[in-house]
Amino acid sequence: MRKIAIITGTRAEYGLLYWIIKGIHEDPKLKLQLIVTGMHLSPEFGLTVREIEKDGFPIAEKIEMLLSSDTEAAIATSMGVGMIGFARAYERLSPDILLALGDRFEIAAAVSAAVPFRIPVAHIHGGEITEGAMDELFRHAITKMSHIHFPAVKSYAERIIQMGEEPGNVFCFGAPGLDNLYKMKLLNRMQSAKMLGLPAGMPWGIVTYHPATLEKDSAGIQVRAVLSALERFLEICWIFTMPNADMESRVIIKGIGDYVKKNSGRAFLFSSLGQLKYLSLMKHSIVMVGNSSSGIIEAPSFKLPVVNIGGRQAGRIRAGNIIDVPLCRKDKIEKAINKALSGGFRGSLRNLKNPYGYGGVSKKIVNVLKKISLSNKLKKHFYDL
C-alpha cells in the first residue's frame, strides 16, 4: 500500500486539497497520512483543525510551528521549528510520497525537511508568479525540491520545464480547488444569509486582503486606503475574511476589526468560513476586493468582478473579471469598484472562461500518485531546453 503524506497549513489550502485528500483516503491501494500544521492549530485563526476532524479524515501528525508574532524573526523561527516537527513526523511515518500545495513558508519548511529523508515530493500549483510576495521565492524553491509537478495552466507547466524539470514528470490538469464548484451543492442566498447572520436585503461584497510581504511596513497604510475606499459604498454589506499568518498581518486584522465594530450591521469579519460558505458567498456577491488568489482562480467561474489591489498577485494569469489597481490608493480603489459595479463591465463577463479549468482535477492527481513509478525518481536530471 502506497503511503501518501499531505501537508496542510491553512484553511484555504485545505479547501483546495479536500477532494484529493478524500480520494486518497477512500482508495484501498493508498494510505493517507495527513499532517496538519500552521494556522490550522492557531485559535487566532479559527482553530480550523476542527473542520478537518469534522470531515472525518484521520490526522497522522499535528505540528505546531506558528509563534505568537508576525515579525520577520518570528516567521523565520517558525520555519525552523516546523522543520524539526516535520523531521520527527517523516521519521515516524516513512511516507512514499509527500504532497504539498502552493508557496507558503510552512510548505517550504515541510519540503526542505523531506530532502534528507529522500522522500519524493509532488507539488501542486508550481510555476506561477506572485511578484509582490515572498511566496514567489518559496514556490520556485519548492519546485526545485520536488519530483512530480501538477501546475494549473499550460504556461506554468512550461515554466517548470524551463526551470530544468523533466516534461514526463509535469502533469497539467488545471486547478484542483475548482472541483469544489462542481462537486459541492452551494448554499442559496437565503441559506447563506441565515447561516452567517448577514442582511439579505443588501448587496454583498467580499474583502480579503493579505500583507504584501515584500513591501516592508506597508500593511497599515494599505489597509487604511482600502477601508477608506469602502466607506464610499455604504449600500454594500462588506464581508471580510482574515488575512494569512504572514508578516504584518496583525495590523491588517486590527484595522479590519475596528472598521467592523464601527460599521456594525453592514460589515462582518470571519476568521474562517470553510469552502462551502466561502464559495456560496462568492456566488451571491456582486464584487470582490483585495489581493487574494481566490479572486484570480475561483472568481472567474462565478463571473464575479474582482478589484485586485497592489502587486501581490502580479504575474499570475488572469481572466477578464480582474480590474487591477497597481497602487494602493483610495481614489484608485474607488474608481475600480465603481467600474466593477457598472452594468457594462458586468455584462462583459457574460461569456467569461476560467483559464484555470473546469474541475475534474483531483481524481487525475490521485491517479498519478497511485500509478507513477518512484524508481529513480530522486535522481533528478536537469532538463535543458
Structure description:
Helix 12 (293-297) links the parallel strand 10 (287-290) and strand 11 (306-309). This protein has helices at 11-26, 49-54, 72-93, 105-114, 135-145, 154-162, 179-183, 189-196, 219-230, 249-262, 274-284, 293-297, 330-341, 343-348, 361-371; strands at 2-8, 30-37, 59-63, 97-101, 121-124, 148-150, 204-208, 237-241, 267-270, 287-290, 306-309, 322-325. The protein is globular. The protein is an alpha/beta fold and 385 residues long.
Can you tag this structure with a few keywords?
Rossmann fold; 385 residues; globular; six-stranded parallel beta sheet; single chain; 41% helix; 15 helices
Quick overview of this protein structure:
The chain is an alpha/beta fold. Helix content is 41%, strand content 15%. The protein has a six-stranded parallel β-sheet with strand order 3-2-1-4-5-6, with helices on both faces. It has a six-stranded parallel β-sheet with strand order 9-8-7-10-11-12, sandwiched between helices.
Secondary structure elements and pairings:
Blueprint: E1 2-8, H1 11-26, E2 30-37, H2 49-54, E3 59-63, H3 72-93, E4 97-101, H4 105-114, E5 121-124, H5 135-145, E6 148-150, H6 154-162, H7 179-183, H8 189-196, E7 204-208, H9 219-230, E8 237-241, H10 249-262, E9 267-270, H11 274-284, E10 287-290, H12 293-297, E11 306-309, E12 322-325, H13 330-341, H14 343-348, H15 361-371
Major sheet: arrangement of strands: 3-2-1-4-5-6
Question: Which percent bin holds the helix content?
Answer: 40-55%
Q: What would CATH call the homologous superfamily of the largest domain? A: Glycogen Phosphorylase B
Q: Point out poorly predicted stretches.
A: none
> Percent of residues in beta strands?
15-25%
